[in-house]
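Progress note, sequence design subtask.
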């Protein structure tokens, strides 16, 4: 009886390890996406009017006819934001002739510090095609709400603050509607592979 129980315990452990290995394989081969029904996708997003890194007023309609790859973050973000933006830049650069059909955009969730001048320097580090967008607190709150983006200031020791925020990447179609949502952990290669099928 003891031997049978031991065997079952070991077998269960082996099965669990194999299952985890399979899950790990699958998630490294495909870009992580947020599963959502079509009607849920349709309810995410909407019109916005913000200011770009050159101080120009830009609306969502300015980008009609092209895809947009949008990420919400802030320039003082220590790791996740720059990593995600670099992955976006690398993915787009790997699209070949389709590169001109997509606009990478960074919308700040820290408008008090991310002025147009700050964004110009920040997004410029990821390539000349990036558009950085900021606005008033109410403007940012409006667009964040439309895209279901969570963000909140968090005090840091010694003064100042960081900004906690959700980390999805949004792909908008040429009509301005949401096509799909990627997790920020998606690699550049995985993003590029999926984008080629959609653009």
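Output:
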């Amino acid at each position: 009886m003891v031997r049978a129980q031991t065997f079952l315990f070991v077998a269960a452990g082996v099965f669990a390890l194999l299952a985890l290995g399979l899950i790990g394989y699958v998630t490294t081969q495909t870009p992580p996406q947020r599963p959502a029904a079509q009607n849920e996708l349709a309810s995410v997003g909407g019109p916005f009017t913000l200011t770009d890194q050159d101080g120009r007023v830009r609306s969502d309609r300015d980008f009609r006819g092209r895809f947009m790859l949008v990420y919400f973050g802030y320039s003082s973000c220590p790791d996740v934001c720059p990593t995600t933006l670099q992955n976006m830049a690398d993915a787009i650069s790997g699209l070949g002739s389709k590169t001109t059909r997509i606009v990478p955009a960074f919308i700040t969730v820290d408008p008090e510090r991310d002025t147009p001048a700050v964004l110009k320097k920040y997004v410029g580090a990821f390539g000349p095609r990036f558009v950085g967008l900021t606005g008033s607190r109410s403007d940012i709150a409006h667009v964040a709400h439309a895209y279901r983006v969570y963000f909140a200031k968090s005090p840091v020791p010694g003064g100042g603050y960081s900004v906690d925020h959700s980390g999805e990447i949004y792909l908008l179609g040429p009509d301005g509607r949401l096509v799909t949502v990627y997790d920020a952990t998606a690699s550049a290669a995985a993003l590029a592979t999926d984008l080629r099928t959609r653009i």
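Residues 18 and 24 are 10 Å apart (CA to CA). Work on this subtask will continue into the next period as scheduled.
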